[in-house]
Amino acid sequence: QVQLVESGGGLVQAGGSLRLACVASGSIFSINAMGWYRQAPGKQRELVAAFTKGETTVYADSVKGRFTISRDNAKNTVYLQMNSLKPEDTAVYLCNADIATMEYHYGENYWGKGTLVTVSS
Q1: Within 13 Å and on the Cβ side, how many CA atoms surround 28?
Q2: Which of 16, 36, 100, 118 is deepest in the core (most CB within 10 A)?
Q3: Any residues with CB less than 8 A from the CB of 54 and at least 6 apart, and which?
Q4: Whole-angstrom Cα distance, residue 69 to residue 51?
């Protein structure tokens, strides 16, 4: 009923920039929280940046000052502007959201399939 679809990943040289987008679609009543996680090979999934249920933004320490999360509520879309990319940013970036559907009006957790970001040195 709800889908999250990411886009914008790719191959970039160190120091470069990418902009990711995640669009939520389906039977959406409200989006309570939305953000980005990443998972590198052999590593645990980690939070990158997110809008929380309390309407605040959170960032991983490793991306502060380089990444910026933004959103377009009218389009149910969240963006991640990534600047000054480093090889250690290489990972699959996954969109995550807490969304209440029209049917149930309470929040459930959803994940996108991810988009691969590769930063070459």
Answers
A1: 21
A2: 36
A3: none
A4: 8
Q: What is the C-alpha separation between 103 and 29, in angstroms, rounded?
A: 8
Q: What is the pLDDT of residue 54?
A: 79
Q: Report mean pLDDT in 10-residue bins for the chain, 121 residues.
A: 96 98 96 97 97 92 98 97 98 97 90 98 94
Task: Report d(CA 111, CA 38) in Å as an integer.
Answer: 12
How many CA atoms lie within 13 Å of 86's alpha carbon, on the beta-carbon side?
Answer: 8
Six-digit token string for 118: 């590769």
Q: For residue 67, what pLDDT is reported?
A: 98
Question: Hey, what's the torsion of the CAs at 37, 41, 43, 46, to 10 degrees?
Answer: -10
| Residues with Cβ within 8 Å of residue 94, at least 6 apart in sequence | 6, 36, 37, 38, 39, 45, 111, 112, 113, 114
The phi-psi region of residue 48 (left if phi > 0; otherwise alpha if psi is between -120 and 50; otherwise beta) is: alpha
